[in-house]
Specification:
- The chain has 485 residues and is an alpha/beta fold.
- The protein has 15 helices and 17 strands.
- The strands form three sheets. The protein has a nine-stranded mixed sheet, with helices on both faces. Strands 3-2-1-4-5-6 form a six-stranded parallel sheet, with helices on both faces.
- It is globular, with a radius of gyration of 24 Å.
- The two termini are 47 Å apart.
- The mean pLDDT is 96.
- Bound molecules: 6-O-phosphono-beta-D-glucopyranose.
- Residues 212, 231 line the site of 6-O-phosphono-beta-D-glucopyranose (BG6).
- The site of 6-O-phosphono-beta-D-glucopyranose (BG6) has 2 residues, from loops.
Length: 485
Amino acid sequence: MVEKASTLLMFGATGDLARRMLLPSLYGLDSDGLLPADLRIIGTARTELGDEAFRERADAALKEHLPQGFYSEGIAKRFLGRLHYVPLDIKDQSGFDRLAKRIGDPCHGVAIFLSTAPSLFKPTIDGLAGAGLACPTVRMALEKPLGSDLESSREINDSVAGAFPEDRTFRIDHYLGKETVQNLLALRFANSMFEPLWNATHIDHVQITVAETIGLEGRGDYYDQAGALRDMVQNHMLQLLALVAMEPPADFNSTAVRDEKVKVLHALRAITSADVEANSVTGQYLRGAIDGEPVPGYAEEVGHESTTETFVALKAHIDNWRWKGVPFYLRTGKRMPMRDTEIFIQFRDVPYSIFASRGATTKPNKLIIGVQPEETISLHLMAKTPGLDRQGVRLREIPLDIGLANAFSEYRRRIAYERLLLDLIEGDPTLFVRRDEVEAQWGWIDRIRAAWTEKGLTPRPYAAGTWGPSAAIALTERDGISWHE
Ligand code: BG6
């Protein structure tokens, strides 16, 4: 049986992710009584701090980032009591030895969360191993970016594998912690009505959009090296695509689910220099306005001219029986007009309309799964417009809408990391990304980047607050399809 962690060791404990997401998530779990009673959380980073100073910082982070009304003095007191801090310079082995001493028995119940720059992964793992902290029971969670291409991702994976075997390596993609993303599996595999239609015979195309209104948020150094393809498509969007497209797993367990996802990733048709212009569009935002407020252009924000893409649209194909000939259009960008993550499934039209002779046209059904900001499922159906039909039958498309927030109003909306941290503490890897998935993702992305380089393609400008360059509209319009907005 997998042992629950009694020590959670957080690298990068003074960083942005810890303040905005990890500490509030752990607090949320604690407030619901879900953390093991004896769980200690040991934060570590370079900053010289003692336990008390770390607790004060954590308290400030909770007050700033927890949803309004959720902070309670009593729970915070209990939660902060779990926190400890050990300063550590990753280049200095003595810090790791101090850490090991503080942990006491590293071979029982230790889970590690690494959210540092990937260049520090290897020295951190070496340091942990050197201090005896890589025992056969310790689990290791890794936050993205896990490399910048297939080769660097393999290097990271190899160095992790030297100390932590795959079944104890938990690669995080926080989209998998989102409730609606998991709900995709429930929608597909806990209902009998969708699966028979979930294939090329009945589905015309799929669109996946991840639109953000934010710009760089102070992460210019990282983002300018990454760009939208590596920052969003390589991980989150390909995971969404895999969940939409995978075959039914035999069971809801980590091996079966991930086996099916990786098959989809391997079946993605490579986009090469021969077709990259027809199948991809990149963009970079210029200054513009969002919600009526002026915002600077990318070059201004990052502080120099750059060829990094802040928008990417792709037309992808999955070469297997189920999806033969069904395009998957993916699009993501920063400084879009609204925050919107959704999966749009366009079904095919009825094979023959009995209403055509009465002047009515039908529209094909659509299923729209809203991931954020609202969690929704909307099924668009054709219905008869009320009336006596003296001028012919009139049909109209009407949505069958489910707002998950209303349907489950008794449940608190959780941060995606709550689920992932709890699964890490309890040792369930189902919602973490396996090495073969990450490498298949990078392999596909690398081909696209190589094709852009070979063709000398650079991002087209778009005004902040718009849906990207007009070429992105042409990408779908060429196929007679419009982006769903
Ligand atoms: C991160 C990216 O992985 O996901 C960010 O690095 C992006 O650039 C973020 O803003 C989006 O996450 P969410 O949960 O807000 O959609």
